């Protein structure tokens, strides 16, 4: 019986690897931000290429107070959307830096990544995972952190081994409940009757192509699965399936002669936006330095605007933000890599 459950879980996690990831990280006093748990494939936490968008996610630069006001902060990167949330949780461990008390709270980052085709599910999913972590593990995460720190020690005393075992037990329970949350979330989403939007249809099609059973959609109603229009990417043009977002970047270019970065952005919406903050910053070793901060009083429907910013010598990584000033909502966040632009 146990073997069958293990095989089933492995099959579920293999499917989840193609659909979504959960990254839980903490702030270590001596190392900075360190992965605590990666689901479903923990081994990838040591893969620098895989972890790169996590390292440069804008959630790092947000105060906890700001994060509390916002549901989450997003980053779009190479076909995936990364939904991020920063929280504080209870702690009762001896800190490794002077000035920090034993009960100083732990800074925890939760990030969920989804393919762009499934980003419609992200808002609710990051809320569910955040609520799960706070509700079930708020007073236990510091034990997992102690466990990860204990693993680094060359000589492990019986007490340290006990701490490691306790931490692994909590992590295994977290994996189980995260897996359960994902499974229930996707199952609930694809059962919704309102699947008439292009975006929802596209997401359901994506799930079907990835092997998720969607044949039971509308099973209890008058609808059948055949009522859902499944997209076939090889037969549909980009124009047919493109999802309009309020803002998008139409082009990015680097002008080598003047060493300037040109970004052409467009208001896709049918409405006018007021007081939009344009911010460009470069990132190096987790520190962000702002190189442009400009305010657009009126951005008219379908209007394209060109933003020109100096490119800093020897800096290739930049972040571009569109922020609605009134409620500090980030309408667009885009990571820009000049090295990749030069190769295109």
Give a written overview of the molecule.
- The chain is of the alpha+beta class and 344 residues long.
- The chain has three domains: 177 residues; 50 residues, no CATH class; 97 residues, Immunoglobulin-like, CATH 2.60.40.10.
- Helices cover 33% and strands 31% of the residues.
- The chain contains nine helices and twelve strands.
- The strands form three sheets. A five-stranded antiparallel beta sheet has the order 2-1-5-4-3, sandwiched between helices.
- The longest helix is centred in the middle third of the chain and has 32 residues.
- The radius of gyration is 22 Å and the shape is globular.
Topology:
Layout: H1 2-19, E1 21-28, E2 32-39, H2 48-55, H3 64-69, E3 73-77, E4 80-89, E5 106-115, H4 122-137, H5 141-151, H6 158-189, H7 198-209, H8 238-241, E6 247-255, E7 260-267, E8 273-284, E9 287-299, E10 304-310, E11 317-324, E12 329-337, H9 338-343
Helix pairs in contact: 4-6, 5-6
Could you write a compact summary of the structure shown?
The protein is of the alpha+beta class.
Strand content: 25-35%
Indicate the radius of gyration in whole angstroms.
Answer: 22 Å
Helix content: 25-40%
Mean pLDDT: 76
* Count of the domains: 3
> What is the overall silhouette?
globular
Strand order of the largest sheet: 2-1-5-4-3
Largest β sheet strand count, sense and barrel closure: 5 strands, antiparallel
* Structural class label: alpha+beta
Counted beta strands:
12
Beginning-to-end CA distance, first to last residue: 53 Å
What's the order of the H and E elements? HEEHHEEEHHHHHEEEEEEEH
Low-confidence segments, given as residue ranges, are: 1-5, 213-243
Annotation field: number of helices: 9
């Amino acid at each position: 019986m146990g073997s069958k459950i293990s095989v089933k879980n492995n099959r579920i996690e293999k499917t989840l690897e193609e659909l979504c990831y959960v990254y839980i990280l903490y702030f270590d006093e001596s190392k900075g931000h360190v992965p605590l748990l990666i689901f479903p494939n923990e081994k990838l936490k040591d893969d620098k290429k895989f972890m790169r968008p996590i390292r440069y996610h804008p959630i790092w630069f947000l105060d906890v107070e700001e994060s509390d006001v916002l549901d989450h902060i997003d980053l779009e990167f190479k076909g995936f959307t990364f939904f991020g949330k920063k929280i504080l949780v209870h702690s009762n461990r001896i800190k490794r830096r002077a000035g920090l008390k034993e009960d100083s709270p732990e800074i925890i980052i939760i990030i969920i990544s989804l393919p762009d085709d499934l980003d419609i599910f992200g808002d609710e999913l990051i809320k569910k995972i955040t609520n799960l972590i706070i509700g079930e593990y708020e007073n236990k995460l510091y034990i997992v952190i102690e466990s990860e720190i204990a693993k680094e020690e060359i000589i492990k005393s019986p007490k340290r081994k006990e701490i490691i075992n306790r931490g692994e037990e909590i992590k295994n329970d977290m994996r189980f409940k995260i897996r359960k949350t994902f499974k229930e979330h996707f199952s609930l989403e694809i059962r919704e009757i309102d699947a008439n939007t292009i975006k929802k249809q596209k997401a359901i099609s994506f799930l079907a192509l990835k092997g998720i059973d969607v044949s039971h959609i509308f099973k209890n109603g008058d609808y059948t699965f055949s009522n859902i229009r499944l997209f076939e990417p090889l037969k549909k043009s980009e124009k047919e399936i493109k999802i309009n977002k309020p803002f998008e970047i139409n082009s990015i270019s680097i002008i080598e002669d003047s060493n300037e970065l040109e970004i052409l952005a467009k208001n896709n919406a049918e409405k006018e936006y007021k007081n939009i903050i344009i911010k460009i910053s470069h990132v190096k070793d987790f520190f962000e330095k702002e190189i442009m901060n400009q305010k657009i009083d009126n951005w008219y429907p379908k209007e394209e605007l060109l933003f020109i910013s100096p490119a800093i010598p020897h800096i290739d990584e930049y972040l571009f933000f569109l922020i609605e000033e009134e409620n500090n909502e980030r309408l667009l966040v885009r990571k820009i890599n000049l090295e990749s632009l030069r190769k295109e």
